[in-house]
């Protein structure tokens, strides 16, 4: 499941995994945990060489239950810490660095193993799991995306959130390594007019048709 921020990927992926009894992996959380750790270490996240030198972050995805996905850094659960504005505004700069992507790609493939998992991100259908049974690419109008994200994050306005989403989209889509793009064989769903339950039902139907 790929798509830009606020397109409904997380809620949809978790809902689909829960309905189908599958595991769940949020690769965005891995990039966020890496970013959180870099900021803690005082790394200048706008300096790709400095970021590349510190990809040894002790982060671990320790749970793939869609109801309680768990990611730790040095044994500490960072679920809340990785959702702050500070991490959100730095994560795309860290994700652009090829060494970061290489390290996390290895771990993502290890976790995916032989399958039975819903994986969300930006490059899952194109790079991480090009042989996935079902690929879904979610989009939504920028305003709908910003409204959803603002509701999730305290202390921000829709306008500020929309500007940040569009800035991240630009970096995520324009980077050289594994940019945000739809795989040729992905199903595109524009979630703007649908409720979450409707989108989950559409994706579950796609999975059931494919298997
Ligand atoms: O999905 P989420 O908004 O939490 O992702 C945070 C950031 O992580 C994205 O803006 C993007 O820069 C990066 N990311 C990525 N590749 C992925 C997942 C996330 O580059 N597969």
From TrEMBL:
Its EC number is 2.7.4.25. SUPFAM superfamilies: P-loop containing nucleoside triphosphate hydrolases. It catalyses: CMP + ATP = CDP + ADP; dCMP + ATP = dCDP + ADP. It is found in: Cytoplasm. Keywords: ATP-binding, Cytoplasm, Kinase, Nucleotide-binding, Transferase. GO terms for biological process: pyrimidine nucleotide metabolic process. Signal peptide: none annotated. The keyword RNA-binding does not apply. Belongs to the cytidylate kinase family. Type 1 subfamily. This is Cytidylate kinase.
């Amino acid at each position: 499941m790929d798509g830009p921020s606020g397109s409904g990927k997380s809620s949809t992926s978790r809902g689909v995994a829960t309905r189908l009894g599958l595991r769940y992996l949020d690769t965005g959380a891995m990039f966020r945990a890496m970013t959180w750790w870099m900021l803690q270490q005082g790394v200048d996240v706008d300096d790709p060489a400095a970021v590349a030198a510190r990809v040894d972050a002790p982060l671990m995805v320790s749970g793939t239950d869609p109801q309680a996905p768990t990611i730790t850094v040095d044994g500490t659960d960072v679920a809340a810490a990785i959702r702050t504005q500070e991490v959100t505004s730095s994560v795309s700069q860290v994700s652009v660095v090829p060494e970061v992507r290489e390290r996390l790609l290895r771990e993502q493939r290890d976790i995916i193993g032989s399958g039975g998992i819903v994986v969300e991100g930006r490059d899952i259908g194109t790079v991480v799991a090009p042989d996935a049974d079902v690929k879904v690419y979610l989009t939504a109008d920028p305003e709908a995306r910003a409204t959803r994200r603002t509701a999730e994050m305290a202390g921000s306005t829709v306008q500020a959130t929309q500007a940040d989403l569009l800035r991240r989209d630009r970096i995520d889509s324009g980077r050289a390594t594994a940019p945000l793009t739809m795989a040729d064989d992905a199903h595109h769903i524009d979630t703007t007019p649908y409720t979450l339950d409707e989108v989950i039902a559409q994706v579950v139907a796609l999975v059931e048709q494919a298997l």
